[in-house]
User: Fold this.
Amino acid sequence: MQDTYKTIESTAQGYITEKKSKFLSFIFPVKTAEEAKEIVEEHRKKYYDARHVCWAYMLGWERAEFRSNDDGEPSGTAGRPILGQINSYELTDVLILVVRYFGGTLLGTGGLIKAYKEAAEDAIKNAEIVEKTVDETLVIHFEYLLLNDVMRVLKQFENAAWEQDFKESCTMKLQIRKSEFQQLSNNLSQIYGVKIEKEQEDPI
Assistant:
């Protein structure tokens, strides 16, 4: 089961020139389409004197939500090449934005595609790419007498992390990689008296 994905740790920048046109590129970690759109709008205002602000984003560990925008460049010459670089590096939860200052010479379709592709890649190469796991969580309740049994199960899972709240009875919030979640849940459910309250996907 696929339960890892690649993203970036923090914002990075790139820069190329092509026939006197300047291409400033930026890559941002983002979690939602709204967050991506806000960053695009901020940069439209910041670089108001630029000819184009083109962009693409990819969201979600399954890499199923994405968009690209040519911002007035010929169709398919800007947003799509930027998105292509996101795909080439298998990234997600990222926005890449390329600001173009026109240098007076038309680049043609092929030249534009090449320039936006190279600008996007330069930002990626300057970013720190990290691999993260897709985690799921569950909350369990049990009496103190079962604590040793529960801990015996948890020790079988090296990737398990938990928070505990021991008052009148025991409550634990467990987090584990998606690929190991079902086995952990099954093992805990075999302990008579352990109540599994909640299960949810929690990519981090």
DSSP finds five helices and eleven strands in the chain.
